Amino acid sequence: MVCPCDWPEPIVRVQSLSESGKPIIPDRYIKPPLDRPSLDTNPLDINIPLIDLAGLNNGDLTVREATLKEISVACREWGFFQVINHGLRPELVDGAREIWREFFHESMEVKQKYANSPKTYEGYGSRLGLQKGAILDWSDYYFLHYLPSSLKDHNKWPDKPTSLREVVEEYSKEIVRLGRDLLEVFSINLGLKDDYLQNKFGGDDIGACLRVNFYPKCPQPDLTLGLSSHSDPGGMTFLLPDEDVSGLQVRRNEQWITVKPARHAIIVNIGDQLQVLSNAIYKSVEHRVIVNPDKERVSLAYFYNPKSDLLIHPAPELVTPETPALYPSMTFDEYRLFIRTRGPQGKSQVESLKSPK
């Protein structure tokens, strides 16, 4: 299966639709009734777990064990959590988000220089998936590679604002460090060797890529979504949310929970590859993004992925007669192409891979 070199239809920038001031969104963005958001049903007292990572390294073994357990419960029961004291400077967290906001407010001429194609998705884009006539999401985005270094190309990163490349480099380095730290924690919590998951991801030769999401104001937010329901195909995702505008919703017990970000927190979620490696002890979870009639929203989703050509399968240590392997072996490249061709489709992608009983 090879990705086509061009989109099936002309690309329309959602930001341009928003700025046109029209009170009605085009039919291409109107979701079926069952997929539309309910904007007023979220219980105010429910949120994803908030975990202070300072407890991992403060020298107190009791606190460390308690923090490990918090992370374990979050991975098993939620698939999502947010972390504070993660080692990223507050100025970097705010600066990374705001410099991308500046990019999306550059002229269309500046942005169009980086228009992407479905072959690699790198650059400035406005749709996911290749189905002609598909219902689209109310968002634009920018996608770039950081690792492996052979894929990183600064010429494909925006040159405006002028400090963007420098900020993205520093932010990327810190996210990769955090990813390595958490994979070690996940390995320990699963009863595996400390470096098991990192090695299964490829050791130092992992994949890391960034998708910056721009959700323009929407005149009919009850009819559409900024990003359709899906689980993330990769290893794990680090989301830097917009602290001023809620948008991320996580599915839990057949209910959509709107995430309330903590100040300078990073949101972490389990991807499909960790669900496979853990033999579904950890589960990737459906999530989606709602949009706002009065405010734009910017978020940075950093994907920390296995090396693309390594076979991913359940860890043998987690496979027993009582808990047989649920998934066949597949490289991340094969799985990613499968996803990119079909676009966001809830949890059906990873569930369709399960071995027949």
Short description:
Belongs to the iron/ascorbate-dependent oxidoreductase family. By secondary structure, the protein is an alpha+beta fold.
Please provide a written account of the structure.
With 357 residues, this protein is an alpha+beta fold. It has a single domain (18-353), classed as Jelly Rolls. Helix content is 27%, strand content 19%. It contains 9 helices and 14 strands. The protein has helices spanning 14-19, 61-77, 90-104, 108-112, 164-189, 196-201, 272-277, 332-342, 348-351, and strands spanning 50-52, 80-84, 123-125, 140-147, 207-215, 227-230, 236-240, 248-252, 255-258, 266-270, 287-289, 297-305, 311-312, 330-331. Strands 1-2-10-7-12-5-4-3 form an 8-stranded mixed β-sheet. The longest helix has 26 residues, at 164-189. The protein is globular, with a radius of gyration of 20 Å. GO terms for molecular function: 2-oxoglutarate-dependent dioxygenase activity; flavonol synthase activity; jasmonic acid hydrolase; metal ion binding. It catalyses: jasmonate + 2-oxoglutarate + O2 = (1R,2R)-12-hydroxyjasmonate + succinate + CO2.
CATH topology group: Jelly Rolls
Terminal Cα separation, in Å?
A: 27 Å
Question: For the report, how would you describe the main beta sheet?
Answer: 8 strands, mixed
Kindly estimate the percentage of residues that lie in beta strands according to DSSP.
Answer: 15-25%
CATH superfamily: B-lactam Antibiotic, Isopenicillin N Synthase, Chain
Q: How many separate helices? A: 9
Output the radius of gyration: 20 Å
The number of strands is 14
CATH architecture: Sandwich
- Report helical residue fraction: 25-40%
Q: Strand order, main sheet: write it out.
A: 1-2-10-7-12-5-4-3
CATH class: Mainly Beta
> Number of domains in the coordinates?
1
Which structural class do the helices and strands define?
alpha+beta
Order of helices and strands: HEHEHHEEHHEEEEEEHEEEEHH
Low-confidence stretches: none
Average predicted local confidence, pLDDT: 93
General shape:
globular
